[in-house]
Design goal:
Length: 142
């Protein structure tokens, strides 16, 4: 007969972690649904190195003051605004984006959220998310 130690079973801890991740994802989807039609999502790449997860956004022509990064739990929220350039003539073709830009990204769970940093160079916003040490939980058989 198994002996009850008073601790939550390991499966309950995993279940609670998954529920928290699902809530965070649902929150990110709610934020995405609240975007206006006039808002645009900038192009994004996410890749992994040995020590970091790197997220890069294409934001050419933006000033640093026009870019805002926020963290909401494990969700990274990018907001940026680029005004339309004035010209004397009539536009024949308009392909460059302007106006409000918005993007939400769910940060993977193995990231040290307190150590995230960002840099903006040559029209690319790079968000560097250092990986945290993975937690190993010993499992004992009875």
């Amino acid at each position: 007969m198994p002996h009850f130690s008073g601790r939550k079973p390991f499966t309950q801890e995993i279940f609670n972690r998954h529920v928290a991740e699902m809530r965070s994802l649902l929150h990110a989807l709610e934020l995405r649904d609240s975007f206006e039609d006039s808002e645009t999502r900038p192009k994004m790449d996410m890749y992994e190195t040995c020590h970091d997860i790197v997220i890069e956004f294409d934001l050419p022509g933006f000033t640093l003051d026009a870019i805002s990064l926020k963290m909401n739990g494990v969700t990274l929220i990018l907001e940026a605004c680029k005004p339309r350039e004035q010209c004397e003539g009539k536009f024949i073709c308009v392909e460059r984006g302007y106006g409000l830009f918005h993007h939400t990204v769910l940060i993977p769970g193995n990231v040290d959220i307190c150590a995230i940093r960002a840099e903006y160079r040559r029209g690319v916003l790079r968000v560097i998310c250092p990986k945290s040490c993975e937690r190993l939980v010993p499992i004992k058989e009875m």
